[in-house]
Amino acid sequence: MSQDNMIKLECTVCKRVNYNSKKNKKIIKQRLELNKFCRSCKKHTPHKETK
């Protein structure tokens, strides 16, 4: 997998980068937002894609 498709997911509450994921940037143009578990917040929070 190339690095072009890799993205970082940042917690919207505590602003920590917790997850790395991948997406097809040709199909999905807007930034990804997912509900994921944050270890520092200790609950499920929305995670947004960072640069």
UniProtKB/TrEMBL annotation:
GO terms for cellular component: cytoplasm; ribonucleoprotein complex; ribosome. Keywords: Ribonucleoprotein, Ribosomal protein. The keyword Ribonucleoprotein applies. One of its GO terms (biological process) is translation. InterPro entries: Ribosomal_bL33 (IPR001705), Ribosomal_bL33_sf (IPR038584), Ribosomal_zn-bd (IPR011332). One of its GO terms (molecular function) is structural constituent of ribosome. Gene3D superfamilies: Ribosomal protein L33 (2.20.28.120). The keyword Ribonucleoprotein applies. Pfam families: Ribosomal_L33 (PF00471). It comes from the Bacteria. Signal peptide: none annotated. Belongs to the bacterial ribosomal protein bL33 family. This is Large ribosomal subunit protein bL33. It comes from Candidatus Falkowbacteria bacterium CG10_big_fil_rev_8_21_14_0_10_43_11.
